[in-house]
Amino acid sequence: MEDVPASPKTCPLPVRRHPWRAEQPCRDSRRRVDVADPTVTSPARPLKTPDDSRVVLAHIMSEHDTNLYGTIHGGVMMKLIDDAAAAAAGRHADGPAVTVSVDRMTFLAPVRAGDLLSVEAGLERAGRTSMTVGVRVTAERWNHSGPATEVATAFLTFVAVDAEGSPRPVPALDTSSAGIS
């Protein structure tokens, strides 16, 4: 191996020279490049709206879900958020999708046993194989007859996968209609 001067088309690290090619292109796995424009549709990549994948999950919180302070444990809400977001991502992708990251999760108000939690998830963005899902969580207080209170929001990133676990393309998203945020 010998050092090759770095240029925009080559890796800054040493690369192996091939007899038929002067330089080996960079194969840096940390560099992310979407080859296809995620807004372009084709018969292989249909267009969907956020409403096509919207999911609402409702759950009555119980004492089993509480922590030492008498409020619902954050991990219980995180699981419900991930479940709803995964369902929305899978619905958009027309198949399985896996959680890649929780980009942001904000707890806004405490939830108590007896509260009816509504977890609403919908697509915010669709790339070539990845999707960003927005989630809004509201609680109807069991002992209060007012409007529901927003208790949490989150944004998660998913990647659609095939049977072997490799990323696969997802439908494009019509961004003219609003998402969850």
TrEMBL record:
InterPro entries on file: Cytosol_ACT, HOTDOG_ACOT, HotDog_dom_sf, Thioestr_dom
Keywords in alphabetical order: Hydrolase
Keyword check for Hydrolase: yes
Molecular function as annotated in GO: long-chain fatty acyl-CoA hydrolase activity
Single GO cellular component term: cytosol
E.C. numbers: 3.1.2.20
Protein name: Acyl-CoA hydrolase
Gene Ontology terms: biological process: acyl-CoA metabolic process
Renumbered residue ranges of the record's region Disordered: 22-50
Family membership: Belongs to the acyl coenzyme A hydrolase family.
Hydrolase found in the keyword field: yes
Residues in HotDog ACOT-type domain copies: 51-164
PANTHER family attached to this UniProt entry: ACYL COENZYME A THIOESTER HYDROLASE (PTHR11049), PROTEIN VDLD (PTHR11049:SF16)
Organism: Streptomyces venezuelae (strain ATCC 10712 / CBS 650.69 / DSM 40230 / JCM 4526 / NBRC 13096 / PD 04745)
Xref: PROSITE patterns: HOTDOG_ACOT (PS51770)
Domain of life: Bacteria
UniProt cross-references to CDD domains, sorted A to Z: BFIT_BACH
Biased composition (Basic and acidic residues): 22-35
